[in-house]
């Protein structure tokens, strides 16, 4: 099968997957206790008022009917409006996408070179001092959950030493880049560890592989063997992990957004679920599902380019 | 009003632990005399991108604070939670208490138009629209709009469907703001309040500037910015890091560890939120008066206040509204009496019974209080089993289901508390207290002109609630706000009242 036909087929499967995700999300939110009217009424749950809110929101229509008209809208590129505020769902997504994209793109721009460099250096000095130190640090860092690292960094660098702003509250992220430093460190900590470990392992395997040994016998220079022959093969497994990380970052890392007050997609999701604002939750589900499908497709294609044999195209 | 749950409750504690080693000591310098100018940034928990600036839709604390900065009500609640005139200069009922003549103050909207009787009627008509569900609707439901009229530009005459001496409480109801007649688009709201609208980014910030022509005098601040930080730890950190000068709704733990700090001044508003357990009277086991009394006697209130509120509060006496107008201060304070409780449990035939206590994280401290209370009941013969439910639907769930649940409430007049929760036909009667003679006392109280006589009727209602009611009210929590030490003019009036979040009275020293 050609690469192009493969891509088209994957996209078709992806569309089905998105539809499935959206349906499951709809059913799950329906299964949660309470609806948007109950959530909005809050500590003033007068049944009369809940009934009025429900009617005003159109929640008195059957669930299937609402889902059907939402799907019909989706087919026309219309994600509907928020039950609670009446704002278009697209406006919510655009609000949240900005901060999430800024964090995700910057994290990836730093992540890939940093982890490849660390992995390669460790592999070339396998068992040496540098390798042992990076291994100890990366394994250690990897075991710290994001929120714990965030809390410690904020307390130390944000509050005690006052070197960096402790939160991004009310800030324009690009105009005040200092607010991005601590969130980026937290976002990078674990992926750098896992990806550099994968690159290291891949590099060690590649350097010991038949074709590299063959290249050595042919008298090709050491640098060229390392970077033109061994490295591409070493990167193939790491690409899958980068894809997973990208997907994680584009979903809006809820913990990091909450602790640092970055109003991205994760925050919007938490608020929308708490408010049972179904159209917003479904809109986010579409975005997350589409991102996952696309990121994984791109990763497979890159992996195929890097090391054609390592990806089984069925 | 919603209190946002802190879903990362752990982070606050960890952050404090990390800070404990580097805390500074020394008292905060007192803010200087009032000074004009500057921008104050205030951090509140928010509702995300679904937030609105329509004051009639206000639901969250941040929406209430913003509405108050941009708009006025005819009345608002004073320090004793009784109605004080605001846009209304004065009010006079007729002898039947069913017609109220309200004289408006000379005030203007931000676009220069005067606030007229017509605007008041249009605002109330909008709130009462049968096709909508605004929060103030139930409070204003007794207004007979068809028979109310504008006497002249600055005089409104309201017709009521029944005699109601506490009508000013309705004028002060949550969300009963006066907007210009015909206003429907609140993208750039125009009100009569102390601040004018500049810009709004939902879920992130609202910027306002001072209204130099405000009827009560211009604010000290030039600009006021509301920013959203849902996590309590983030609000505290933003304040400590100098990113905001006011952090709303901090936990007692944060307050305790920063008392005396030179980076954060703690402001406590006593009697802001009552903490309670609600027993349902219409079903077993708490349809038995003896068992309810046993529960009252099982609670170790000082221990609950110390452990759950970290000392930021006072014990309660199973009655709502300590320090508020009409509060029955003369009823003796209940204390724990395990022996008598055991006796009453045996007498009620409830020995060996296990009762489920429904709770959730819908409000801060509820789960903790339920756990402590369950512990206090050990050895009494009655077992309390704590069940944690879903926070988003908690209030609606516990209104219908179960027999015992955690409860909390913000400030409101005692009359409103009774009308909403303790009459036979009340919309949120969680204890299912339904007594014709009590309903009758209430009706007499709200149609009694003489203040002393009315006070006597409120006292009688409270005596019967104290003796036989379903609310085990164990504490009044302080409302806690953190501010930079150079911020002056922060009032300690209960949350939800006029002087709470009153940024036109605040200055940067």
UniProtKB/TrEMBL annotation, chain A:
UniProt xrefs under SUPFAM superfamilies: MetI-like
Limits of the ABC transmembrane type-1 domain: 97-299
Protein's GO biological process: transmembrane transport
Source domain of life: Bacteria
Primary location group: membrane
Membrane topology (UniProt): Multi-pass membrane protein
GO CC annotation, single: plasma membrane
Record field: transmembrane: 101-124, 136-161, 173-193, 248-274, 280-299
Gene3D superfamilies named among the record's database cross-references: MetI-like
Compartment(s): Cell membrane
UniProtKB keywords: Cell membrane, Membrane, Transmembrane, Transmembrane helix, Transport
Membership in a protein family: Belongs to the binding-protein-dependent transport system permease family.
Protein name: Peptide/nickel transport system permease protein
From TrEMBL, chain B:
Gene Ontology molecular function terms on file: peptide transmembrane transporter activity
Recorded family membership: Belongs to the bacterial solute-binding protein 5 family.
The keyword Transport is assigned to this record: yes
The keyword DNA repair appears for this protein: no
Ranges where the Solute-binding protein family domain occurs: 84-412
Chain coiled-coil ranges: none
Origin: domain of life: Bacteria
Gene Ontology biological process terms from the UniProt entry: peptide transport
Any GO CC annotation of this UniProt entry: periplasmic space
InterPro entries assigned: Peptide/Ni-bd (IPR030678), SBP_5 (IPR039424), SBP_5_dom (IPR000914), TAT_signal (IPR006311)
Signal peptide from the UniProt entry: 1-20
Alphabetic keyword roster: Signal, Transport
Record's protein name: Peptide/nickel transport system substrate-binding protein
């Amino acid at each position: 099968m050609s690469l192009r036909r493969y891509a088209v087929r994957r996209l078709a499967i992806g569309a089905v997957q998105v539809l499935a995700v959206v349906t499951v999300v709809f059913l799950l939110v329906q299964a949660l206790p309470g609806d948007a009217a109950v959530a909005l009424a809050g500590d003033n749950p007068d049944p009369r008022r809940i009934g009025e809110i429900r009617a005003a929101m159109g929640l008195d229509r059957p669930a299937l009917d609402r889902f059907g008209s939402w799907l019909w809208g989706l087919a026309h590129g219309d994600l509907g409006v928020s039950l609670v505020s009446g704002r278009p769902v697209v406006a919510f997504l655009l609000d949240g996408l900005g901060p999430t994209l800024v964090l995700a793109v910057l994290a990836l721009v730093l992540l890939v070179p940093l982890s490849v460099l660390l992995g390669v250096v460790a592999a070339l000095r396998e068992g040496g001092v540098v390798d042992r130190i990076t291994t100890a640090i990366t394994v250690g860092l990897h075991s710290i959950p994001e929120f714990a690292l965030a809390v410690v960094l904020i307390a130390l660098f944000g509050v005690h030493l006052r070197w960096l702003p402790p939160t991004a509250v009310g800030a324009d992220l690009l105009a005040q880049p200092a607010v991005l430093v601590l969130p980026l460190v937290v976002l990078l900590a674990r992926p750098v560890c896992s990806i550099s470990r994968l690159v290291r392992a891949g590099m060690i395997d590649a350097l010991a592989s038949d074709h590299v040994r063959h290249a050595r016998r042919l008298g090709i220079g050491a640098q060229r063997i390392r970077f033109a022959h061994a490295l591409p093969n070493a990167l193939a497994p790491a690409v899958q992990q980068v894809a997973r990380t990208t997907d994680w970052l584009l979903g809006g890392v809820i913990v990091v957004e909450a602790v640092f007050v970055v109003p991205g997609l994760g925050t919007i999701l938490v608020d929308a679920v708490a408010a049972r604002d179904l159209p917003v939750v479904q809109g986010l589900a579409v975005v997350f599902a589409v991102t996952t499908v696309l990121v994984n497709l791109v990763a497979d294609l890159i992996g195929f380019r890097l090391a054609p044999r390592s990806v089984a195209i069925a | 009003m919603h209190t946002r749950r802190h879903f990362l409750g752990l982070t606050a504690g960890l952050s404090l632990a990390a800070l404990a080693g580097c805390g500074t000591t020394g008292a905060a310098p007192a803010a200087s005399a009032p000074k004009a100018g500057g921008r104050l940034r205030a951090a509140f928990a928010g509702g995300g991108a679904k937030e609105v600036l329509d004051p009639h839709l206000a639901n969250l604390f941040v929406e209430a604070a913003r509405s108050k900065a941009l708009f006025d009500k005819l009345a608002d609640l004073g320090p004793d939670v009784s109605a004080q005139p605001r846009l209304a200069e004065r009010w006079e009922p007729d002898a039947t208490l069913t017609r109220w003549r309200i004289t408006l103050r000379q005030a203007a909207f931000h676009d220069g138009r005067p606030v007229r009787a017509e605007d008041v009627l249009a605002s109330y008509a909008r709130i009462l629209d049968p096709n909508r569900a605004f929060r103030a609707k139930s409070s204003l439901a007794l207004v007979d709009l068809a028979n109310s009229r504008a006497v002249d530009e600055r005089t409104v005459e309201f017709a009521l469907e029944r005699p109601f001496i506490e009508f000013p409480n309705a004028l002060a109801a949550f969300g009963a703001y006066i907007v210009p007649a015909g206003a429907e688009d609140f993208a750039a709201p125009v009100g009569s309040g102390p601040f004018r609208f500049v810009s709004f980014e939902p879920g992130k910030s609202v910027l306002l500037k001072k209204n130099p022509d405000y009827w009560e005098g211009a604010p000290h601040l030039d600009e006021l910015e509301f920013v959203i930080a849902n996590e309590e730890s983030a609000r505290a950190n933003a304040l400590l890091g100098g990113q905001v000068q006011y952090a709303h709704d901090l936990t007692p733990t944060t307050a305790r560890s920063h008392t005396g700090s030179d980076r954060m001044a703690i402001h406590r508003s006593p009697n802001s939120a009552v903490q309670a357990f609600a027993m349902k009277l219409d079903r077993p086991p708490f349809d038995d008066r003896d068992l309810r009394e046993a529960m009252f006697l099982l609670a170790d209130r000082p221990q609950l206040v110390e452990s759950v509120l970290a000392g930021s509060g006072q014990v309660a006496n199973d009655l709502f509204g300590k320090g508020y107008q009409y509060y029955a201060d003369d009823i003796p304070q209940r204390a724990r009496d395990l022996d008598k409780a055991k006796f009453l449990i045996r007498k009620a035939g409830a020995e060996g019974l296990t009762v489920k206590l429904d709770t959730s994280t819908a409000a801060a401290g509820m789960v903790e209080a339920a756990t402590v209370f369950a512990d206090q009941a050990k050895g009494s013969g009655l077992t309390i089993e704590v069940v944690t439910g879903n926070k988003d639907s908690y209030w609606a769930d516990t209104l219908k289901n179960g027999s015992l649940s955690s409860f909390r409430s913000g400030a409101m007049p005692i009359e409103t508390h009774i009308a909403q929760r303790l009459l036979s036909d009340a919309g949120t009667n969680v204890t299912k207290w339904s007594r014709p003679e009590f309903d009758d006392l209430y009706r007499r109280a709200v149609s009694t002109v003489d203040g002393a006589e009315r006070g006597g009727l409120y006292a009688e209602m409270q005596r019967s609630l104290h003796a036989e009611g379903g609310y085990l009210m164990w504490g009044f929590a302080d409302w806690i706000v953190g501010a930079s030490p150079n911020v002056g003019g922060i009032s300690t009036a209960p949350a939800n009242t006029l002087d709470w979040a009153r940024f036109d009275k605040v200055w940067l020293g």
